[in-house]
Design goal:
There is one protein chain. By secondary structure, this protein is of the alpha+beta class. The protein has helices at 20-38, 67-74, 77-95, 97-100, and strands at residues 47-49, 55-57, 62-64, 119-126, 133-140, 151-156, 169-175, 182-187. The strands form 3 sheets. Strands 1-2-3 form a 3-stranded antiparallel beta sheet. Strands 6-7-8 form a 3-stranded antiparallel beta sheet, with no helix packed on it. It has a two-stranded antiparallel sheet with strand order 4-5. A hairpin with a 6-residue loop joins strand 7 and strand 8. The radius of gyration is 35 Å and the shape is elongated. 4% of the residues are buried.
């Protein structure tokens, strides 16, 4: 077989008609360049580059490997229908004045002067039936109003911001106005 490709006197690039896939790649590249010249992606509110280097459409929640793919997506049926759906929803929200400022009413905080920490007593106890060890917390609130019931909640070590988090502890918070909130650190 004779090599006719690299002979002297043969023009470079005269290899014949491009196939279907090559022409599609060339067409997509030309359309991408044209779209990049006419559309500014910095002003597109739905265009986002993620931490992996690919591109996302925040409206349609689609991932794209390059800007050309995203621009082709913006001309597609899914993106256009989502744009129309978003525009219709925004128009509906603007026509209904109740949904514009539909925020819960702001309840003013009552400022209570704290009078100090409550008295407390912690005792180790043992259940007489199961012989299991436990802790008994007794907290004294002598100046509490009769209508106020003390509140309590358990907090993990990772929720609190006072000390460095230690996995082996949990915290019991006890609060009643006008006393300061008390916290008891206990092993899990």
């Amino acid at each position: 077989m004779v090599d006719r490709q690299n002979r002297a006197g043969v023009k470079f690039g005269g290899g014949g008609v491009a196939g279907g896939s090559e022409s599609n790649v060339d067409r997509r590249e030309r359309l991408r360049k044209l779209a990049l010249e006419t559309i500014d992606l910095a002003k597109d509110p739905y265009f986002m580059r993620n931490h992996l280097g690919s591109y996302e459409c925040k409206l349609c929640l689609t991932l794209h490997s390059n800007e050309g793919s995203y621009l082709a997506h913006t001309q597609g049926k899914k993106h256009q229908s989502n744009l129309h759906r978003r525009a219709a929803r925004d128009a509906r929200d603007m026509s209904n004045p109740m949904t514009i400022n539909a925020q819960p009413p702001v309840i003013p905080k009552t400022v209570v002067i704290k009078i100090g920490r409550p008295g407390y007593k912690i005792t180790k106890i043992r259940d007489p039936h199961t012989r299991q060890l436990g802790l008994l917390f007794q907290i004294q609130y002598p100046q509490i109003d009769t209508k106020i019931k003390p509140r309590h909640r358990f907090m993990s070590a990772f929720e609190q911001r006072i000390e460095p988090a230690q996995r082996q502890f949990q915290y019991l918070l006890i609060a009643a106005e006008p006393y300061e909130t008390g916290c008891i650190q206990s092993p899990k």
